[in-house]
Specification:
Elements: E1 9-14, H1 18-31, E2 35-41, H2 44-54, E3 58-62, E4 64-65, E5 68-69, H3 70-76, E6 83-88, H4 92-101, E7 105-107, H5 112-124, H6 131-143, E8 148-153, E9 156-161, E10 165-171, E11 174-179, E12 184-187, H7 191-198, E13 203-207, E14 210-213, E15 217-221, E16 227-230, E17 235-237, H8 240-256
Parallel strand pairs: 1-2, 1-3, 3-6, 6-7
Antiparallel strand pairs: 4-5, 8-9, 10-11, 10-14, 11-12, 13-14, 15-16, 16-17
Length: 257
């Protein structure tokens, strides 16, 4: 017997570049044939009308529009029961905002393997969390330093104040977040991902397994097996290779207060 037929996904594309629309359509027809494109819009106004009329399950949304930006579409539509995959040519400074907000995105020119991954993720993770939270975090991160991060967990999306993160701990390909209220969050991304993401926000890698928030360092204990005591009273070992960088970062942080 052959593989079971996948359920059709009804989608629309919102992009003002005709070449990009054609390229995405071709990739969908060739590699993700159960995604049906029910309509295309090339500006905010038409996109709002199209989405409210068709009521798709999935929207491929470009950020830059002739009459606004992709987020304007999300704020103006009446029908909101759909998932979004952003399609963007933005460089790294904007990609960081996508990571903080846990918003799905594809980089132009689109790679068919990344497209297949995005569709698989859409099919396996249906989130009920308000998309407004993600938009808010994206806008804040895009324009300035973020104060919040969206953590994708097994229960959905959790918006967390960055200042309340005491530390992060590696657990294989997962990362454990320890928060100031005593709670924990488990995210299926490696610690390396968050090390890069939080590097400019007073977080420092002190060990292969540990990333700590300098804001929550209570005390540093010297010695061959030096360690920090965090505000939650946990002891976190500082490896020899990272001790010098940690101490410099701690001094610089103290001076900035």
């Amino acid at each position: 017997m052959g593989a079971p037929m996948k359920e059709t996904i009804h989608a629309v594309i919102v992009d003002d570049e005709e070449k990009s629309v054609k390229a995405l359509n071709n990739l969908l027809e060739k590699y993700v044939q159960h995604v049906n494109v029910d309509g295309v819009a090339n500006c905010v106004k038409d996109a709002v009308s199209l989405i409210d009329d068709i009521k798709p399950e999935l929207v491929f949304l470009d950020i830059n529009m002739p009459d606004g930006i992709g987020f304007d579409v999300l704020e103006q539509v009446s029908f909101k029961d759909f998932e979004v995959i952003f399609v963007t040519a933005y460089e790294s400074y904007a990609l960081k905002a996508f990571e903080f907000s846990a918003i799905h995105y594809l980089l132009k020119p689109i790679n068919y393997l990344e497209l297949q991954k995005a569709i698989s993720r859409f099919e396996s993770i249906k989130v009920d969390s308000p998309f407004e939270d993600q938009i808010s975090v994206f806008r804040e991160t895009f324009n300035d330093k973020p104060s919040k991060i969206i953590l994708p967990t097994s229960d959905g999306l959790n918006m967390v104040d960055i200042d309340t993160i005491i530390r992060c701990e590696a657990d294989s390909n997962y990362t454990l977040f320890f928060l100031a209220d005593g709670s924990r969050e488990i995210v299926s991304k490696s610690l390396n991902n968050f090390d890069k993401l939080l590097a400019d926000l007073n977080f420092i890698r002190v060990h292969n397994k540990h990333l700590i928030n300098l804001r929550h360092v209570k005390k540093y204990i010297k010695g061959k097996t030096g360690y920090v005591i965090m505000n939650d009273e946990e002891h976190v070992y500082v490896s020899d290779s990272k001790r010098k960088t940690f101490l410099e970062s701690l001094k610089n942080y103290a001076k900035s207060l």
